[in-house]
Design goal:
Shape: globular
Structural class: alpha/beta
CATH class of one domain: Alpha Beta
Oligomer: single chain
Radius of gyration: 19 Å
Strand order of the largest sheet: 2-1-3-4-5-10
Largest sheet: 6 strands, parallel
Helix content: 40-55%
Distance between the termini: 46 Å
CATH topology of one domain: Rossmann fold
Length: 313
């Protein structure tokens, strides 16, 4: 077990959606705020080697959250950037951390790394049993290389690097911009816009048949901290809630919570993405005692309330 209290911790992406919750969680666990370094991408572009060297200098622990990421539409339009940016950040940062003598590297990968037709629930052993869903494969594979690198570095250098695979995250503070938002904030914004314009319908991509699993952002931050503190093995670990809901049921639930009674029109010309997503979360519970606490409907209500309190349009 790692004692955080006297450690210097680098959190890349620490000012973003996940990072801001993670920083608060680290402080709850007794880490002094002045010991947490959250460099911004504006000041430190981690695609550049020299910046990676600078941010890891003097740090004991690195938690790598920084990523270029978006929804299906963004993935379709920017596959090359998603591959290059993510693989360059992860590869260089881990090498810089090793050279700097960092004690532990926590890599945050993605559920998008799993094969398109993974049996449900997804078990960590299934990660290499096929190619990811096409629309997010470049992103998923780039983030999956964190696992390959971590295992290789542990084998050759004895470097303590672990890799976590979180499911779709959601919660207050998420990105609600249509260009980059994931499914929950995208649907909340869609319903809110329809209500504001007094429209009696909304258009939703795909067929509504695919399923997804969601993990509330506070639970995700807790899981990452518990893993950083207690997990020191080479095997990948899923972070999720173990629930599964279809996109159709999801949008109907959002409409109910937002009191929208209009029609849902499915744009079946648009892609569905991966057919099903639901994780086996038993390894996280066994290895570092993580289990999601937040009820999905409660988490959705919190997210919707935050959106209306903070929406700028």
């Amino acid at each position: 077990m790692l004692d955080f209290k006297n450690k210097k911790i680098l959190v890349t992406g620490g000012t973003g959606f996940v990072g801001s919750y993670l920083v608060r969680k680290l402080i709850e666990y007794g880490v002094p705020q002045e010991n947490i370094f959250t460099p911004s991408s504006e000041n430190f572009d981690l695609k550049k080697w020299e910046n990676c060297r600078q941010v890891v200098a003097g740090q004991n622990i690195v938690i790598h959250l920084a990523a270029k990421v978006g929804g299906i539409g963004f993935n379709q339009e920017h596959p090359a950037e998603l591959f290059y940016d993510n693989i360059m950040m992860g590869t260089q940062l881990m090498e810089a951390a090793r050279l700097a003598g960092v004690e532990k590297f926590v890599g945050i990968a993605t559920i998008c790394a799993y094969p398109k037709f993974t049996p449900v629930p997804f078990r960590e052993e299934d990660l290499w049993n096929g190619y990811p869903e096409e629309t997010n494969a470049p992103y998923g594979l780039a983030k999956k290389m964190l696992l390959v690198q971590a295992q290789a570095y542990r084998q050759q250098y004895g470097f303590n690097a672990i890799t976590l695979f979180p499911v779709n995250l959601y919660g207050p503070g998420d990105k609600f911009s249509p260009k980059v938002s994931h499914v929950i904030p995208a649907l909340i914004k869609k319903v809110a816009d329809a209500k504001k314009k007094s429209k009696n319908f909304i258009d939703v991509w795909g067929t509504g048949k695919p399923t997804r699993e969601f993990l509330y952002i506070e639970d995700a931050a807790e899981g990452i901290v518990l893993a950083a503190e207690n997990y020191d093995k080479s095997e990948p670990v899923n972070l999720g809630s173990g629930m599964e809901i279809s996109i159709k049921d999801l949008i109907e639930l959002i409409c109910r919570l937002m009191d929208f009674k209009g029609e849902i029109k499915w744009d079946t010309a648009k892609p569905d993405g991966q057919p099903r997503r639901c994780l086996d979360t038993s390894r996280a519970e066994k290895e570092f005692g993580f289990r999601a606490k937040t009820d999905f409907e409660t988490g959705l209500k919190n997210t919707i309330e935050w959106y209306f309190a903070n929406a700028k349009d």
